[in-house]
Amino acid sequence: METFALLAQGFAVALTPDNLIWSIIGVTLGTAIGVLPGIGPATTVAILMPLTVGLPPVSAFIMFAGIYYGAQYGGSTTSILLNTPGEAGAMMTALDGNAMARRGRGAQALATAAIGSFVAGTIGTIGLTFAAPLLVEIALKLTAPDYFALMVLSLATVTTMLSNPTGGGSIAFGLAALFFGLLLGTVGLDPQTGQARFAFGVPELLDGIDTVVVAVGLFAIGETLYLAATDGGKVDSLHKLRGSFWMSREDWSRSWRPWLRGALIGFPIGAIPAGGSEIPTVLSYTLERKLSKKPEEFGMGAIEGVAGPEAANNASAAGALSPLLALGLPTSSTAAVMLAAFQQYGLRPGPMLFDTNASLIWGLIASLYIGNVFLLVLNLPMAGVWVRLLSLPKPWLYGGILVLSSLGVYSLNGNAVDLVILWVIGMVGFVMRVVGVPIVPCVLGLILGPLIEQQLRRSLAISQGDWTVFVTHPVSVVFLLIALAFVVSPIVSGLRRPKPQSAVGITQ
């Protein structure tokens, strides 16, 4: 009953006129930018994050939540009409969604994606409402060594999963990105001794490198430069919408079960470290194909292939918010950027925030219910408006993002050093994308690095310098062993994988 009372207080916060306006602005901006090809939720939040500095925290995070959900919705439009997934989670939607568009059923594909996103987003938000307080109760029982081990586990799982998702990536690249982020997190004054670290005599670096600057540099600047270099000269083949958005009785019959199944798959997987949106969408697509009475239609325009993955994609967004709010641990790239947004306001998500700033947390959760309704109203009747954004010239789009990102970062502190850092990090992000180095471990290393250092020093202070404190606590040792397994298993599997034999000429 306490959860319902807190949620009611959250609705009282979210339903104020000011916050309703910010929710509408958030879902509108999120959908509009999410529609544009190549720009996912993480990049959208990173671009707009510096522009919210003057807002109250509750209003800012209600807008961020709207941007997050709106960008998830908008990505389906690009996948269906352009066959260009804006993010990895929309890849499966593109398989059958674009096939439906080629057959003149793009309107129905957008409709099932929008309604499925609403259904799954609502179910996921209900899961968040009840899962977050349970995670808080668990978190309150953890000690400093447990927190240290939990954050190490989070870094290990995200780094290995993103570096080696299918066995073909390089774990070394992921670890390099992680340690680069950890290095960035050490810049500034030592929290215990007050000594300057890696500041190189630059006064602006004594407070450390702003996580917002790094997030915008990697996700907005680096990603935009990469898109301009790879896709800037290509002409997109847009399939125009024809006919009514109204789904037939058969479409409804074939969609509602995938909506529910996708939601039940997406939420729990989105909540685990490195679960993200890719894994649940692939699982949903595979499940729907196995359960379908017409599996031969998959890849040719099966509506279940759009309904299930889109539902899983949006439910995973709510799942990712559960550990972010309750434990302060991001499990996806967008959650990592939102964690940077919390730090922008001097807030640290976790169990204490539920006590010290309950209106913010529950107002944010309540706004997700409201934002889902706004998104359904925006996406169905205004789909034609969003489609017109796809005709925006790419040079204008990429140039606008770079200018907006630079102005936003400069507005944070009003100094040119942030701009230099932004563009240096942006160029590093561009090189990382070209080489194939994952970006998220770098951001997580920057954000969680100082927290890991804090918990490490606290643990050693409690144990009077005894390092065995991390293996004498049962929870801590379990987390560390799992983290070790995540790092070692890809290396071992890579060594066991047979090497391709090169053709060698045999002379007789």
From TrEMBL:
Bilayer-crossing regions: 47-71, 110-135, 147-164, 171-189, 209-229, 359-383, 395-413, 419-448, 469-492
Keyword Nuclease (UniProt): no
InterPro entries linked to this entry: DUF112_TM
Alphabetically ordered keywords of this record: Membrane, Transmembrane, Transmembrane helix
A Pfam family assignment: TctA
Keyword presence, Cell membrane: no
Domain DUF112 span(s) in chain numbering: 20-444
Full protein name: DUF112 domain-containing protein
Species annotation: Microvirga lotononidis
